TrEMBL record:
It comes from the Bacteria. Signal peptide: none annotated. It comes from Nostoc parmelioides FACHB-3921. It holds the Pfam family NQR2_RnfD_RnfE. The chain crosses the membrane at residues 201-219, 231-249, 255-273. Keywords: Flavoprotein, FMN, Membrane, Phosphoprotein, Translocase, Transmembrane, Transmembrane helix, Transport. The keyword Transmembrane helix applies. This is RnfABCDGE type electron transport complex subunit D. The lineage of its organism: Bacteria, Bacillati, Cyanobacteriota, Cyanophyceae, Nostocales. Coiled coil: none annotated.
């Protein structure tokens, strides 16, 4: 049912952010590319779900639907495309391209990563991030503009409010706090060392893209470590390497590359600190259900 799933709120908030950005910011985003991203994500999700179901391999990547096992008949799966729509909105907010084929490549690779890169039926790449990196690495006309949202304080307040409500529901505040807390501390130490004024510091932190990443991408509960201590260590490590790449190697998109590089390490983190895996439909256990 609508708004019974926290992902419904994610879809609403991300859609509003997209509308807000187009109407208030001078973006190079074209409406037709948004349509391409959404259509490609939904189509790829549907096709790969059908293939995986036909092969009897179990879960779609984000646990979209859970059906109790029946000895009498197999249930007909209800088409659920929430996660694909969230991925497409994330790509539309962060990725820019000159050609529709580039956006289609990013969207298709983002969804495919959920089905291909799995360990114990859990995908470890954030889909939107995987799509962004695929487009940056494989095409000449894709880019991410970290400063596209500007540094206006009310953008940050809006993102924090919307993201905070979702994080409270899914219980992943620790990840955002660990990332933003450690990253802001490192930037503060550098600012003091260089003797810069504090307006420079706030300018570097009050980036809409950074807040979107911290609130909606690094906190994806289906692709990050399961245990709280694992998530904190993981997020702290991402903050350190993002700080190094951004300030000493001058990589403006460092945060996306670091998340991509660290994604496979969630397998090791989950091995070191064992904890129950997150499920959007947490009232049913994996052992007592069939995930499609």
């Amino acid at each position: 049912m609508l708004l019974k799933d926290i992902r419904d709120y994610q879809i609403i908030f991300l859609s509003l952010f997209l509308i807000l950005g187009i109407s208030t910011r001078d973006w190079t985003l074209r409406p037709e590319l948004i349509g391409v991203a959404i259509a490609t994500c939904l189509l790829t999700q549907w096709l790969l779900s059908q293939v995986k179901q036909g092969w009897g391999l179990g879960a779609g990547s984000k646990g979209e639907e859970i059906y109790p096992i029946s000895t009498h008949h197999s249930p007909i799966p209800e088409l659920n495309l929430r996660s694909a729509l969230i991925t497409s909105l994330g790509l539309s907010l962060l990725l820019r391209a000159d050609h529709w084929t580039t956006m289609a490549l990013a969207a298709a690779s983002a969804i495919a990563s959920k089905f291909v890169f799995q360990v114990n039926n859990k995908h470890f790449f954030n889909p939107a991030n995987f799509g962004i990196i695929s487009a940056l690495a494989l095409t000449p006309d894709a880019w991410v503009s970290p400063g596209q949202w500007g540094e206006e304080w009310w953008y940050g307040l809006l993102f924090a409010g919307a993201g905070g409500m979702i994080l409270q529901r899914i219980g992943r505040w620790d990840t955002t706090a660990a990332f933003l807390g450690s990253y802001s501390l490192l930037e503060a130490m550098r600012n003091l060392w260089l003797g810069w004024t504090w307006d420079v510091y706030w300018h570097r932190l009050m980036s809409g893209s950074l807040l979107l990443f911290a609130l909606f991408m690094i906190t994806d509960p289906r692709s990050i470590p399961n245990a709280r201590i694992g998530r904190i260590v993981w997020a702290f490590s991402i903050a350190i390497f993002t700080f190094i790449l951004r300030n000493y190697f001058f990589v403006p998109t460092a945060v996306f590359w670091v998340l991509f590089a660290f994604a496979p390490l969630t397998i090791l983190v989950d091995f070191l600190w064992s904890a129950p895996r997150f499920s959007w439909l947490g009232e049913l256990s994996i052992q007592d259900s069939k995930i499609i």
